[in-house]
Amino acid sequence: LLNINDQHLTKKPKLPIFLTSIRNLICIFEKQFHKGIQEIFSNHVFVGRVNSNYAAIQHRTSLYLVNITNLSKSILYQSILRNFSNFESFDISPAAPFE
Predict the structure, then answer these.
(1) Whole-number Cα distances in Å, 23 to 56, 76, 86, 97
(2) pTM for the whole structure
(3) Angle at which helices 68-82 and 20-32 pack, to 10 degrees?
């Protein structure tokens, strides 16, 4: 069983991103983003895995083949950029040696 403290269940307010480099990367990403792809992924139905690399999704009457690895990398990249200032800190015990 996991011991979950109440502090992990409360949602903290999202902190703004002050680093210009991160804000610039978000801006570049948003300029390159295609609205049609956003619509597809916002309103799709997962059909199933085709093999270890691809999955099929349906949007309206169209069926799409999605590269799972590339999609996962893109989602992770977006998540890291948008949540850059909001990652939890953690202690390493015992402390890692620095030499």
Answers:
(1) 33, 16, 14, 33
(2) 0.67
(3) 140
Q: Token pair of 82, please? A: 């948008």
Calculate the CA 82 to chain-centre distance.
8
Q: Is the dihedral of CA 13, 18, 24, 25 positive or negative?
A: negative
3-state helix, strand, coil in the chain (%, to 5): 45, 15, 40
Contacts of 48 (CB under 8 A, 6+ apart): 55, 56
Q: What is the pLDDT of residues 36-81, one digit of tens each?
A: 998 999 999 999 999 999 999 999 999 999 999 999 999 999 899 9
Q: Could you tell me the CA-to-CA distances from 40 to 6, 15, 25, 91, 98 in Å, in that order?
A: 37, 29, 23, 40, 47
Distances (CA, A) of 28 to 5, 23, 79: 38, 9, 15
Token pair 């015992």 is found at 94
